[in-house]
Amino acid sequence: MDDGFLYFGSASISDDADVQRVIGSRGGRKCLHSDERGSFEFDLCSTLENKFRWMLLWAQPRYFVQRQRQLQWCVTGAPIPNAFSSLFKIDPPIDFIGISYGLACTVVELYWRILADPGTFPDVGEPAVESLAPLTFLTHDSLPLKEARPWRQPVCTIRGHFAKSLAYMALEQAFLHEFAHIGNGHNDYLSTLNLLSLTDRPYHPVAAEKDSLLLQTLEMDADATGLMYTLELNERKRLDLPKYADRLDDAKRIANIAAFGAVRAYIRNILFSNYVFWRCKDQVWDLEKQPHDDHPQPAIRMKFLRDGLARCLLAMPHLGYSPNDFITDSREIIQSAEIACARIMHVEPQLEVYQSAFQTADAVHYFEKLEDYWCKIRHSLMKYPKVRMLAPCNLPHNHALI
Ligand SMILES: [Zn+2]
User: Which of 84, 106, 195, 398 is 20 to 30 A removed from 40 (C-alpha atoms)?
Assistant: First the structure.
């Protein structure tokens, strides 16, 4: 374990030395030892271990395991926020998902800060007990978080539990996004193109424009499938809530109801938590930079997420939440998320910038270019999927919905 590999949840890997070597080379140097049990990091990683293990049990029936192909995952020791999926071509080959403990800590602390602000989610718990005492503000440069803990937690216990629910929602979606890269065969596909796999690429590559379009399209494909899983997962939590609500203390029960108790609530929370997750690490929209990135920028991902949620609601009428109502609600949700981000980053909210990213010609054009490319590579991707894929464009675009 001294090579800095956090070895949770992957006990059945047959050739762990090989996986450790590969993970270790990605910069994972912090190792949590058993004497750290009870620490913030250890408890968080243990909770994630249980959640991810349960999610894989839930998701694995979809994964048509090829003979000799295993699906494994771990929380890596890397302090930088990072999530990745890999195909390790060892014998037997391993499909692998890594979530860094740096990502887990950063996300939880981010939402603690947001709920420590009485102006955000004023309907949850007792916001009046929170106060906006001076604190260090988050900036793009201050992420990943390096400061010593304890960070600012909400005073209200309900708001603290609710913040954790939002954080876990974001982390579960990150995990399911990575699972979608595997399930939809992206790593297999990339390995046939002589392109570096997603995991072997440098952290911020200046990709050639064509490679960039392909990688961004695969990100959208993973977002779409991850979103479908996230919706199903949260619907299941909502349906299961009455079964375990009696066993929760009051604060946890109220926080759970706020997080999952109604379809409208958890869909609001998915949109909100994604916005915060992306917005706090990137500019909203930069036309010059976008064609060279390997991920779509927040404005594009957000538009895609919003439209994807609307499409899912159209395909899931039993949820009883009309896509048009959701599109209307989404404006307020995104605005409140932007305001929440601006407060913890101590900047002016960029409401106009965001609206224009949704509506200006260049952003909309880029978005449509990605969707077109998504349809174009569909037939190539279809050779590899091991899970049910979400159809990209056989449902109306959101502007047709409104
Ligand atoms: Zn991805």
Answer: 84
